[in-house]
Design brief:
2 copies of one chain form a homodimer.
Chain A lengths: L2 E18 L3 E15 L2 E9 L4 H16 L7 H11 L8 H21 L3 H4 L7 E6 L7 H13 L4 E5 L5 H15 L4 E5 L6 H11 L6 E3 L7 H10 L4 E3 L6 H9 L5 E4 L7 H14 L2 E4 L3 H9 L4 E7 L17 E2 L13 H4 L6
Chain lengths: 360, 360
């Protein structure tokens, strides 16, 4: 199937003011949608940022990727992934290049599904599963009251787990917030914490020890992603499992974390990882190493991907839901989600809902 | 000094068809120039790519960096570097983000020099030095005849060293080419080879052993930059020193190479490394570890930077010279170069020479 045309569109979607320790205050998300035409089929892909870099991602797709993809056979996705990686090698190896490759890669998988009339999970050789979902706020700036209100709304949706951002300057504030959430949810609900890379290894160790009393399910991004040895040390010294993945922009980065015993819950994000193709590889590494897996954002794609993972424990229901902009928002039933059954990714944006945010 | 305005311009500069083992055939270079206005001074920066990603780099500067820089005090360059890194963290940590940060960082250093009326090297606390330069082709596709002609032209310019690209499919071709160049230059000229990341560690080891007979000064980028352990192994097992640096997009990446004993000649490129600020850190790491240093491309900036390095052995005179587009091209005297003595970087583009290539 020859690729005939690739089109992108840029949107800036407003967020109610949220934030975390690593990225600060966030007021918008950038969404770049991609349409790929091949022999009468129209496949859809997308990529996102948390407010910065979206114009650049679109420029990479339009100027550097689309011109070499048109005319190529769309069937061998890995070959095209390699071609894109290689083309962007000098300015890539992760970062913005990974976000651009992802948009194309998602569309190529969608096309594969449309052609074979199969949902994504079936293309991975997997069966559809009910995956436990956890409620996830981007809530570091929220007052304790608002944090607890958010937690109540998660409980009302039946989530078996909830996650709280940590990384306040004063450790006692983190303890008070995590403790209050634990008290509210009781012992039967899983509780995760996420530091968004804010600490040194020493700080992360001390903070982790203080918080372990609350019975945590995982401790996410305690320090910067470059500090693989730090993560490995935290994994060894703390009881709470260390989770990472959204900041890893290539299979190489995942491989290093797995090889060095620096990750215990491997989290995929098929956009930031560099596409579905890259996240699948990360999940295969996790399976081979006997690691638990989970996801970051990308709720709809991740339901398919985690169905193909042996030890998938949770899908993240992220605060940045694309729900208002999707024709068929993902359904949560008893705190669980399932992959869609329609051919391809099952993701179709609602053009009229997106229109007001185009090129803003 | 308050930053008042930042402007960029995009150029696609033609190259005579050249190529290497990692990046394939190259027919153009992208140049993004940057002007930064602050309190009556106009500072100049630039960044480049080897033909892909330039539009994205410009978009990052225009959409994501310039808006937060305007109004900032330009004096504390490290603080602004950190701010840019942090702002682009989610989509950055290297890659295109590093190339964008570099353009601003170069202009900030230029501004610093204009303000203090000092050349760049003096801002680093260094003294100007005569630095040996080596002739460097991007010559893998060239015939042996053309390779030897190129080598003769390097000899005519008095370079004490020359570099040859390797990575032909047939190892005997690499041997024949390197051997012929050695024969031509004789034993008194240094000979470097550059594989541009094309091999696995095993292949790189075997290829390196075959080529050591020609008395090599260094062996550059034998395998992919992600394979730090591979580089460390090659450094241990081969007599020829291992060189790397142009593909390292952050001080973190350099730190890992230095820590793991995976680099013996540390090469800077103040564009791909993420700015002068980042390359300076890399040179400090090299000094602390007792490593030799060199440069990649960026001939003009690197003359200043290498003046501040204790064991600087060579500056690369690259095939992609900006000479035709500079008001004052760098001078080579007896195969050596010196940093410029005018305030700032000393780099001013010739607008009329660039004009035909704008936005192409």
């Amino acid at each position: 199937m020859k690729i005939e045309r690739i089109e992108t569109a840029y949107y800036r979607l407003p967020l109610e003011a949220v934030g975390d320790a690593g990225h600060g205050l966030l007021d918008s998300e950038e969404l770049i949608t991609l349409r790929l035409h091949a022999e009468g089929l129209e496949a859809h892909g997308y990529t996102y940022t948390i407010g910065k870099g979206g114009r650049a991602v679109q420029a990479v797709i339009d100027h550097d990727l689309a011109p070499i993809l048109v005319g190529q056979d769309a069937n061998d996705i890995q070959r095209l992934w390699n071609m894109m990686w290689q083309r962007l090698l000098y300015v890539g190896r992760g970062g913005l290049a990974a976000f651009a490759i992802a948009a194309v890669d998602v569309a190529l998988w969608d096309l594969h599904g449309l052609r074979d009339q199969k949902p994504l999970y079936a293309l991975f050789g997997a069966e559809a599963r009910d995956i436990p979902a956890y409620g996830s706020g981007v809530d570091l700036p929220k007052s304790l009251d608002d944090l607890l209100k958010q937690t109540e709304s998660f409980m009302a949706r039946g989530f078996p787990g909830v996650k709280v951002k940590i990384g306040r300057i004063d450790p006692q504030e983190d303890e008070a917030r995590v403790g209050a959430v634990r008290k509210l949810i009781g012992p039967g609900v899983d509780l995760m914490v996420d530091a968004n890379m804010t600490w040194t290894t020493e700080q992360a160790l001390e903070r982790g020890r203080r918080l372990e009393q609350f019975g945590l399910y995982w401790y996410e991004e305690p320090t910067i992603p470059e500090d693989v040895k730090g993560h490995a040390r935290l994994a060894q010294e703390l009881d709470v499992p260390i989770a990472i993945g959204e900041s890893l922009h290539s299979p190489h980065e995942f491989q290093r974390y797995v090889d060095e015993g620096a990750v215990e819950v491997l989290q995929i994000d098929p956009i930031t990882n560099g596409g579905i193709t890259a996240s699948l590889k990360a999940l295969q590494m996790a399976d081979a190493a006997g690691l638990k897996t989970s996801s970051h954002y990308t709720d709809e794609l991740s339901a398919h991907l985690l169905s193909a993972s042996r030890n998938a424990v949770y899908l993240e229901k992220h605060a940045f839901a694309l729900d208002p902009y999707l024709q068929e928002p993902q359904r949560v039933v008893n705190g669980h989600v399932r992959p869609t059954e329609v051919p391809g990714t099952g993701m179709r944006f609602d053009e009229s809902a997106l229109a007001p945010y185009r090129d803003r």
